[in-house]
Design a protein that fits this description.
Structural class: alpha+beta
Radius of gyration: 12 Å
Order of helices and strands: HEHEH
Number of strands: 2
Strand content: 15-25%
Oligomer: single chain
Shape: flat
């Protein structure tokens, strides 16, 4: 199921760059690994950034989103 999002982003929206924000736990890391596997070997898309956050420690995602926007 996690791989459905990059397929939507790449095929549905036409994006060539993907940035990923994930919860720093087993589930978030698993999602990152799935996304890296999806992107690996493809020349039409690129994982430009991946940033994690700890549960309960982030209430404002603006700095994280700004960092990803720069990527």
């Amino acid at each position: 199921q996690t791989c459905a999002l990059p397929i939507l982003v790449v095929d549905g929206i036409g994006s060539k760059k993907i940035a990923y924000i994930y919860l720093n736990n087993d589930s978030g890391l698993s999602g990152l690994e799935l996304l890296q596997g999806f992107v690996e070997g493809r020349e039409d898309i690129e994982l430009v950034a991946a940033e994690s956050f700890n549960e309960g420690q982030v209430s404002d995602f603006t700095p994280l989103l700004s960092k990803l926007k720069q990527a």
